[in-house]
Amino acid sequence: MVNVKGKWALITGASRGIGYLTARMMAEKGANLILHGRTAEHCERVLEEVRALGAEAYAVGAELSDLGQVQSMLDEIDAKGTQVDIVLNNAGMQIAYRTEYFKTPVEDYTESFKINTIAPAMICYHFMPKMIERGFGRIVNTTSGIALEPEQAGYSASKAALDKITIDLGSKVEGTDVMINLTDPGWCRTDLGGPHAPNAPESAIPGIAVGAFVDDKKSGRYLNAPYFTGMTLEDAVAKAEMEFDSPYNK
Predict the structure, then answer these.
(1) 248 is known as an active-site residue
(2) Catalytic residue among 97, 125, 155, 222
(3) pLDDT of 61-95, one tens digit each?
(4) Percent of the chain, pLDDT > 90?
């Protein structure tokens, strides 16, 4: 299992919900953190908590629907000289639920793809070459299990596109110590999942971040959090490495 002590992890959507819980988990394991929110100020409470756990940390802000802000965030991280070892692309947006799905507006797709596909892809493209150059890196992109619901077409299509990007990128680093995998928290009671979701946000821990700790040089897998609910991180990593093969070996 990867020892993340002293490594820098960028977590998007870290100001609340599962991103917040992930930030605490990573800090407890010794990682240093770059916390992303819509503004840096949104992460002030989380900053205080992870610093109290011993992590070095700072916050960055970017509205992910504004791709210029995403680039500015990446430039800011570079300017600070931070070597990003781990990326947890947690942030996402469910634009709307359309009961009259044949009237789904084009904006559902354009906004969903900017936030859920293009922004995380930009982050991957920015940090992954540096990881390859150094010979180490972990990227975990958060997807969704939504299927057969045209009511959520913009959201589910944008996540399916992120799956494709992740798996295709993974084929280029398979067998190396740079790994890129997918996760899905399941349907949790967060701002995105809504109050009627069946699962508590805590059920996504530790599975949501297992991809940051696996050490078997395999990419492109769906290491979805519900597979690991209730397990220790050590047991979750062992399960991921033993039971989940990369798609390139099939």
Answers:
(1) no
(2) 155
(3) 999 999 999 999 999 999 999 999 999 999 999 88
(4) 87
